[in-house]
Amino acid sequence: MNTFSGPLLAVDVEVERRAFAVGASFELEQGERLALFGASGAGKTTILESIAGLTPLRRGTVRVDGVLVAGRTRDETALPARYRQVALVRQPTTLFPHLTAGQNVRYGARGASTSAIAELVDRLGIGPLVHQAAAALSGGQRQRVALGRALASRFRVLLLDEPFSAVDVGARGGLRDVTIEVTTHSGAAAILVTHDLTEAQRFGGRLGIIDEGRILVIGEPRPLVTGPSCRRVAELVGYAGFAPAPNGAWYAIHPDRVLPGVVAGAGLILTGKVLSVHAFGPRYDCELAVGAGMRLSVHLDEPPLVGAECTVTAVAPPIVAS
Known about the structure:
This protein is α+β, with helices and mostly antiparallel strands. It has helices at about 45-50, 100-105, 115-125, 140-150, 170-185, 195-205, 220-225, 230-235, and strands at about 10-15, 20-30, 35, 60-65, 65-70, 85-90, 155-160, 190-195, 205-210, 215-220, 240-245, 250-255, 260, 265-280, 285-290, 295-300, 310-315, 320. It contains eight helices and 18 strands. The chain is globular.
């Protein structure tokens, strides 16, 4: 029985990379989920690999239930990989090529009942694939099987590297729900890395924004997006324009929080020349030239004329520091 009273996962690491060092320091409790969001190449996968013990650390340690699993200290050696109870779903997906899909899922599922594995296989939509060779599966099928193999294992920490990227958009929600349910039921901690902000917000009870190897902020998903801590965080979470605010700060303008025309008392009123208009799902993405050299992207239901003057109201734009 585990009697450790500290955080389930404690991460304090630094990894050397060619372009920049990647560092992370955070803790997760039982049942907590963290989504790390950032652009490709920001260091998200490096953080996962450092937690899994796959990347040499320049400095720091990773502990699961207080036990050292990566790094080293004067008195401790990291636990061998097979005992760490850390499950990783990598991108691109790796399966055992000499095993069938079903054998891949059952690999490492010590103590799990046949009925529990069968239920998991069914919920992940891979029942018809269990007898197929791993090499014969499509990219999306391989990701489902790899996810099943991880969820069937006895993990304390689940690491997910873009696990739904090759899966049809319509199926991602179901796979995400199964992953959350299994993780919560087992009392484990989970980390998802993604460059899809919506995916990150839906998965994580906490959201971390990473840029050039640094986690800029970790917080609750909605407050972090609606009230970004600085201009760079605002840029990363989708604010597409900035207008001068008092004391050298900036009003951050989000393209989806803009109303056409003047809406008194709703926010900041901006007028500019329409530079371009493009279809954007059911709406239109419009680029405006506002003020001296400022360009603003807004999403509107009705398309303005290119070259015409357009006035919009940015609804309650947050003020951010440089």
